[in-house]
Write a structure and sequence with these properties.
Structural class: alpha+beta
Oligomer: single chain
Shape: rod-shaped
Strand content: 15-25%
Number of helices: 4
CATH topology of the domain at 220-303: Arc Repressor Mutant, subunit A
Radius of gyration: 44 Å
Distance between the termini: 173 Å
CATH superfamily of the domain at 220-303: Winged helix-like DNA-binding domain superfamily/Winged helix DNA-binding domain
Order of helices and strands: EEHEEEEEEEEEEEHEEHEEH
CATH architecture of the domain at 220-303: Orthogonal Bundle
Largest sheet: 3 strands, antiparallel
Strand order of the largest sheet: 3-4-5
Helix content: 10-25%
């Protein structure tokens, strides 16, 4: 049967075609091609020039923002016309990068202040993995290497300052101008030299001396006899030639071994505590004064 100039079959085909176009117009479904993201422009596919494809990548044109948020609060843009950077702009509240590991392959700049809520880990050793400080990286903090197992704090040419109400070293010993852990033997260790780097300058030195810290307290006896066994000498230091005065630690150790620290070789001493001799000097003076007082009394009686 024919309707007008169309056969039944032809008319059915036209209706289906119209329905297909109407459906596309009403739905606005996106189309596509091998190279462009496309959209349905009232039945015709139009390419979106901003987005293109190759075999593997979706490409976004230069200086085009991909915006996020109801009010376009945030965006991502490759800023070709400006500083040639990829710009990730967050909202007024900032940007959150979430993941078990966040890696930055390059230099992080412009973060002021940089706030980190967790641990910061530098995996490289040596100065190549340093936390560099200063406009020209004049100062550094870094882990030296596995063999030495040291944290290095390297200041600028002007030095390093530690500021605070109190600066504490809660464990271990502190060495100044000392290389090698084995040479740091006391709370504070300076090098064995008569040069200024082996000296301490201060207005006064104080020692813990309260009765609260002591037991088995007894007065010194025979102080004059003990002092008389010590031999004061003059000498020159081998390292600098500087003339000095004092005692020979090995000789003092034969009289007062408690104030001498011996080396691993028992023939030699390392150090002695000069201040401990003061107590013997005080008692020796008192012993001598008693003898002088007795002699004075006898002389007075003779004069009478």
């Amino acid at each position: 049967m024919a309707i007008g100039k169309y056969s039944h079959a032809k008319l059915l085909s036209l209706i289906r075609q119209q329905n297909s176009v109407s459906s596309a117009e009403s739905s606005g479904d996106a189309g596509g091609s091998d190279t462009h993201l496309q959209y349905n422009n009232r039945g015709s596919l139009g390419g979106i020039s901003t987005f293109t494809f190759d075999d593997t990548d979706l490409k976004v044109a230069d200086d085009i923002k991909i915006k996020f948020g109801t009010n376009s609060d945030s965006h991502i843009e490759y800023n070709e016309n400006g500083d040639d950077f990829l710009v990730i702009s967050g909202s007024a509240n900032g940007i959150v990068l979430s993941g078990s590991t966040i890696q930055i392959a390059g230099t992080l700049e412009g973060a002021s202040p940089l706030k980190i809520g967790g641990e910061m880990v530098f995996t490289s050793t040596g100065s190549a993995g340093a936390f560099a400080i200063g406009p020209n990286s004049e100062a550094k903090i870094f882990y030296e290497n596995e063999a030495d197992d040291h944290l290095i704090v390297s200041g600028s040419a002007g030095g390093t300052r530690l500021l605070g109400t109190n600066i504490s070293v809660p464990s271990g010993n502190f060495g100044v101008r000392i290389n090698g852990d084995a040479n740091i033997t006391h709370g504070i260790t300076l090098p064995d030299t008569s040069a200024p780097e082996g000296q301490v300058k201060a207005n006064a030195f104080v020692s813990y001396s309260s009765i609260r810290f002591k037991e088995n307290v007894e007065p010194l006896g025979s102080a004059v006899e003990t002092i008389s066994k010590l031999k004061g000498v003059s000498y020159n230091w081998i390292d600098t030639g500087k003339k000095d005065f004092g005692f020979i630690a090995e000789e003092v150790g034969k009289v007062l071994p408690e104030i001498v620290e011996w080396s691993q070789d028992p023939e030699y001493a390392n150090t002695m505590d000069y201040t401990r001799i003061i107590s013997f000097l005080v008692e020796a003076v008192k012993e001598q004064q008693k003898k002088i007082d007795i002699m004075s009394e006898k002389l007075d009686k003779i004069d009478v």
